[in-house]
């Protein structure tokens, strides 16, 4: 059984990726026009988050900022390969990545995904999108700062983490979740930037109990794959 190949999940994902391309097209063009290099884009983003995190993401309330279909398929495969039962996602946005992971949960018999986002409108749309895909019963979305929304009520051991929120919070969120991570847990970071938060240095240091490397697709995005080793 593969929910990504055909059926309601595949149809909803196709629609949402088309919507995301339209919604984010102008933003991507603005980045291209205003910045001279990837380094400049990253530097500006980190500086903006450091000044006012809430203001930055209020300004992106209508943008999907979602994973690509290829990255989504990778997430789905991670869920199935690891037989994950409990997943936590930082930065759920409109719910596209949650659909990929929840589809993986459904296809292996069930589980639970806890997602969080700063923007209430995104949480509302994510819930609607998961319902349209027939996966709402597998997902709980929490609205607010993840440093608060993920500080309690996580339940049993966490099998998988998806980090795709504010660049500067990747390491704080990981450290918050660490007591709940089972040995062998997968941590997938999209836009896990070396310049932000110290996350990359932390997960690539075996002394911290991780094994980590950059993903070989979508270069330049800072995609990182990590496992908890102890």
From TrEMBL:
UniProt-listed InterPro entries: SAM-dependent_MTases_sf (IPR029063), SAM_O-MeTrfase (IPR002935)
Pfam family, one: Methyltransf_24
Superkingdom of origin organism: Bacteria
Signal peptide from the UniProt entry: none
Keyword S-adenosyl-L-methionine attached: yes
SUPFAM superfamilies recorded: S-adenosyl-L-methionine-dependent methyltransferases (SSF53335)
Keywords per UniProt: Methyltransferase, S-adenosyl-L-methionine, Transferase
Coiled-coil boundaries: none
Protein name, per record: O-methyltransferase YrrM
Provenance organism: Bradyrhizobium ottawaense
Lineage, uppermost ranks: Bacteria, Pseudomonadati, Pseudomonadota, Alphaproteobacteria, Hyphomicrobiales
